[in-house]
Amino acid sequence: MLKRKATKFIKKWVESKNKKCLIVQGARQTGKTYIVERFAEENYDEYVEINFKQMPSAMDIFSGDLTVDNMVMAMRFRFPEKKIIPGKTMIFFDEIQECQEAITSLKFWAIDNRFDVIASGSLLGIDYKRASSYPVGYVDYLKMYGIDFEEFLWGMGISDDMIKNLHGYLETKSVIPEVINSQMMNYYRQYIAIGGMPEVVQKYIDTKDFRQVDRIQGSLLQGYLYDIAHYATSEEKVKAEKCYLSLAKQLLDKENHKFQYKEVEHGGRAQKYFSSIEWLLRADMVHLCKLVTDVRFDLDDYSRDDFFRAYTTDLSLLMAMKDFSLKQRIVENTITGNSKGGIFECAIADALYKKGYQLYFYKNETTRKEIDVIIQKDGKVVPIEVKSGNTRANSLKALIKKNKDISFGYKFVDGNIGVSEDGIITLPLYMVAFI
User: Would you say the pTM of this structure is higher than 0.85?
Assistant: First the structure.
């Protein structure tokens, strides 16, 4: 069983007083169902799961009055072997987007508060059949992502003491012993090539076979394309698929990683394709890194909706869009050209996205200064540059010098830890998992 950080969140939710229902959000195949099932099995006397895709007839439970007593009675008839006891039973509604009445019922489960109720589903942001409105004020949210690098290390058997030591090097800004740093970079290259989708990671842990990894990545990509075909409107199906499949070219084959509609289709324009990007965003299939025209807090005030980079929500999907040889070159550290800088930028963006950060970037056409990624933390702007080697970060240096409100920035490199007088903190690429 892969250890996930989300388990700790669910445990805190269970222990909270007067808790609401919990909605577990996130892209398909990120482990939402698995994590809830394992938690319920280990922590409850009884567990009732209703998957509305697998068991559409169960929607009848919610066809009458949505009082908790009525719904529990209907469940007892439906599942006579289950002892649905208040305080000892978890109720899990999976693929809840298929049943609007079940979504509505969450308010009444929360008010009643005798049962722990978790709901989950993919594509919860897509209004493809009916209004997907949620009982605001009666639900808590947990956003599930693919496995991050720290969780990958857990799966690979790296001890908590070793990971604690890595945290220590980061906190003290101490140089990491080369034998440790080199091994961590090897793990990080493996992680980039595999990505964080749980099924893919588990297969690699079990077999160490990249060919099997490649097959599962391809299968997951086909599942995402199926969702586009199944859930997108007829006007968006083909356009959204073209946009999605263009991401590898946008991010790995060009020096400029700005999303360009001409890469989707010759002569492609925003007027035709922007709605497709919005659909992919709502479907949790992409996340965006927007251009900002200034680097002052709050960055959202200076962001441009029409100028952005689009990333897959997990590296597993990006890898599936490229030939198997890319994984081989990443792991062997023989990748060169635009792909090398592009893949490391994607890996850093992936890690920050999984930490819940909104991503931005800065580019000044006049001064030719560009910052790969910018985040906001504790009301402060934090600029980040990503280097495939350990070259100078001139744009980052100039930005910190010019802006008094920016006290430091990160430079992620294929190297070791270092701190300069310019306020630049140099870190190995994998250290993004711990900041």
Answer: yes
